[in-house]
Amino acid sequence: MNCNNDLIYKIALTRIKGMNMLMARLLLESFGEVREIFSCKQDILQKVSGLQSPVFADDKRQKAKEQALKEAEFIEKNKITPLFFTDPDYPSRLLECVDAPLMLYYRGNADLNVSRIISIVGTRHATNYGRGFCTEFINDLSQIFPESIIVSGLAYGIDIAAHRAALQAGLQTIGVLAHGLNTLYPPVHRQTAIEMLSHGGLLTEYISQQLLHRGNFIARNRIVAGLSDATVIVESAEKGGALITAGIASGYSRDVFALPGRIGDTYSKGCNRLIACNQAALITSAEDFIDAMCWERPLKKEIQPSLFSEVNEQEETILKILQDKGECQIEQLTIFTDRPAPEILASLLELEFKGLIQAYPGGVYRRVK
Fold first, then answer.
1. What is the pLDDT of residues 18-62, one digit of tens each?
2. Which PANTHER family match (predicted)?
3. Which domain holds residue 339?
4. Under a CB-based contact definition with an 8 Å cutoff, are residues 112 and 227 in contact?
5. Which CATH number belongs to the domain containing residue 343 in this structure?
6. Which of 264, 293, 322 finishes a domain?
7. I need a labelling partner for 262 at 20 to 30 A (CA). Which of 4, 254, 341, 349 fits?
């Protein structure tokens, strides 16, 4: 690969110690092109930047270019998309964050600038309650806004539950990594990560040559928060990475939501505290979330069962009840229809097979919206 390639200079800029978005903007305004930063004299760079430290020394800039050359070769070989902060495809939401990465490395097919992106994070010790909420929340969201993207950190617990629920619901999902794209942690999530490459993607600020460090996991939380319109905390103990993400999201003036839990539950204490301190809004469903975000729902075409020849009179009655009530259990439907349970169950199975209703945990049935 040609050493004069602009990509090499862009990567090299990120390898200069202490380089950040504000400094990079200042230098680019002064020099015009990134490559000029590596060709001008050290004293000029120090004067423009106001830094007197040796970060712009010739040997340090040369070392940064050498690292960048290796990374550019890795990028080309593995079909990775580099996103410099001046590129049009760089996530526009992140540009609003003062500590956004200068460069992102991306493998996937999702548009990182779609109109609706939601981050869902939580404890690594997810309970059935938390996982169930992820599944229901994301499934319901997909019915109303099928172009939404779900972002999380591909970690154990709530993160991986959110990614898998998104894949199951047909939504694209982005995993923000705390390491380069040459590896995957935790490795047990590799199969899910592979699926995400064609239904979302993997995103990181780290080059392949960087060692995995525990501090990276905290640093990547700012990308999870900054990449999205809102962050949903599903479960968290009194301390944890999810609460850090909530604080970062709030600092970015993003909406923060939390799922409440019982006061004695260890992994609901963090969420309950966020809600009690007005650091997060309480939500229990996708409908709550959509209303709080003031997202205008698309116009729905009313399903008219009577137009479907395969829907009989009893099935049509059940659909009307579910439309009016929102959801029902079998016992309730037997009362509303005055029909025996086996007969109602048979009708429910037929309606589910036809894709007109969906079954949920607890024996609850709802119409497909």
1. 888 988 999 999 888 999 988 888 888 878 877 766 778 888 889
2. PROTEIN SMF
3. 305-367
4. yes
5. 1.10.10.10
6. 293
7. 254
